[in-house]
Amino acid sequence: MCGILGIVGKSAINHQLYDGLTLLQHRGQDAAGIATCEERQLFIRKAPGLVREVFRTSHMLRLRGNMGIGHLRYPTAGSSSMSAEAQPFYVNSPFGIVLGHNGNLTNARQLQSDLYRTDRRHINTNSDSEVLLNVFAHELQHAAGSDSLTPDHIFSAVSAVHKRCMGGYAVVAMLVGRGVLAFRDPNGIRPLVLGKRDSDEGVEYIVASESVALTGLGFELVRDLDPGEAIYISAAGEMHQRQCAQSQKLQPCIFEYVYFARPDSIIDGVSVYTSRMSMGRKLAARIRQEWHNHDIDVVIPIPDTSRPSAQELALELGLSYREGFVKNRYIGRTFIMPGQKMRRKSVRQKLNPIGMEFKGLNVLLVDDSIVRGTTSEQIVQMARDAGARKVYMASAAPPVCFPNVYGIDMPAVDELIAHQRDEQQICTAIGADGLIYQRLEDLIDSVRELNPELGSFETSCFNGEYLTGDIDKDYLSWLENQRADAAVERNNNSDTQVVDVGME
To answer: Does the pLDDT value for residue 76 go beyond 80?
Structure first.
């Protein structure tokens, strides 16, 4: 899971890209990058760190031009924090292309081999985003040949990418001096939205992972990109759009609504905030059904993502709702932190209990999901240490039992606490007095009821059903070897360096 952003404006857009990435910071905290161009000159700044750490005044002054793209990196597949894998990536041929990507190519290994053997292109990092960039560059060169580049050539290249690439991906790319391209995989797994804004000089366009980046910059949300669709906006502000996939079906990742997206975003016609409220109501119905003689005194959310669910749950059950934990805003999201040691350390630094909200009470802690169980176990103990008499746990999502292969770092099955454990065994493992999960059908209904046109979702981490049809045991074994905590820690020992392109 990463954040991507692209803007074609009528004046300098460097600060808009900076502000837009800040609004999307929750989608990636490992590295950040911006690429802009002025006429035929390209400027790139990318490095490890948060947006505010990567970009200084001197960098912003050199990011010139009226169009550009930005990327926030969230590491997957055991990748390290090396600057070399910060995005966007650049290739000179053909035409000069810079690209950022959110998702995961499940056939990246085969593509990399094909690029070397057949396409005569070399990959310098372990990132599948660089693979995707080179596949697109090769296909664009094949489509355009020696002719002048046209939107038809670009869309033809995207069509070829869809034929060659498997997995989930949302892409933003810039053709230097020409325009910005955005496209979404044929299943629409990863989100991508289009916005526009009227200025004195004409219409300006934006594409982004979430609508919050649009509204925060004063753009109007036009719509989500369709699965398989590509949009190309020229430097002059002319927009072209085309369906580039032979077959497509909207099946968005349901974990976007559970955890990743900001609550003030709208994804595929669904308010993330409203969907989380619905999750809370449905979870309350299950508690009423299965714990009808419960002795819960108070409902406490594990901030921040679970708040809407916890509030609605408390309201439905007629229970008191309290804020029992104070969150340190300067600690990143523990779910996306690489390495078990870092996650354990960060939980204690991130949350501090308010003792008076726990002392002598039976508390129900509500979380958005339970993945490894690291956070849950520590928070349950924190509640007990604060004086809680009993500690119950409720998850707004079903048990996470399988790896996610489409861009979310849910890694080796042995690191998933729900793998081959029932609810009682998980409850014992995290040290709670009781544990209850959302049903998968209720989670799906929580989102679908807000947009009945959403027929199905990507839910593989809950049910092990991989919708692209190319996932087997060999792939999962390879992915486990790449993504497991041991691999992350091994790679994190690598040296880092800052990469500046065209900004000396």
So the answer is: no
